[in-house]
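User: quick one, fold this
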Amino acid sequence: MIISPIFYMGNKKKLIKKGLIELFPKNINKFIEPFGGSAIVSMNTQANMYFISDIDNNLVDLYKLFKYNEADTIINHINSRIDEYGLARERTRRIEFKDKEKIEIYKQAYVNFRKYYNENKNVLDFYTLMFYSFSQQFRFNSKGDFNMPYGTDCFSKTNEEYIKNGCNFFDKDTVCIGKSDFRTINIDLLDENDFVYLDPPYLNTTATYNENGGWNIQDENDLYELCEKLNDKHINFGLSNVFENKGTKNEKIIKWCEDNNWKVYSFDKHTYTACGKGNSNTKEVFITNHEMNN
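Assistant:
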């Protein structure tokens, strides 16, 4: 599996290990991913062309970072900021890391760098900052300032390899990126050889990308309508979602699947994780209109 260099809530790495991509059609011409997220699904799917988009400007900026920069440029910038601000080069998880004084030094270094970024925003510093934020995630306040607290991770040699993965993938001429809403997909440009993979925010879960009404009933209904239109045009789609979260069933999507006779694949014992908090009661599913390959 190719690991994405982008940290993002709802990353499908675990589901890829459980066979998600094996459920996709074979011989995909155009692979469309309107909820691009970390792009790990696109990076591990074989297709002739890739169209990756998201409505989050920060994610699109990261896609462009890897498309238009050499890996060494990104890595060297991160290392220079680490040296300049005295950011940690070791993990500081409190169970394992006992030097409380050093933790406070690293924490202050992070706060200083975060302050600099908020006053001088650029994507290279934004990406560097994420290595040291809580759960390596990003969040902004109403003023547009990065406000994630200090985390316990750091930049590592493994991360350097992931950055190389990202540059190798996004640099391809066959990879197109953009900022757009899923409702803007032009179905008339697609045919039965193409595949649309949808990984929207889940209506009945909570994560940083779904705070403050980030995904609502109208969005959910519009998503269902898109899937039905794709099916009417004989275009294959796949939708990741959850039927159950913390003991509460999502009756709306369950009924929609039953009404349309969609094929549903369940990932047994998969644990949904939101910002480091596990939930063993989530039933994650893959919903599709095509015949699965196994």
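User: anything notable?
Assistant: The chain has a mean pLDDT of 90.
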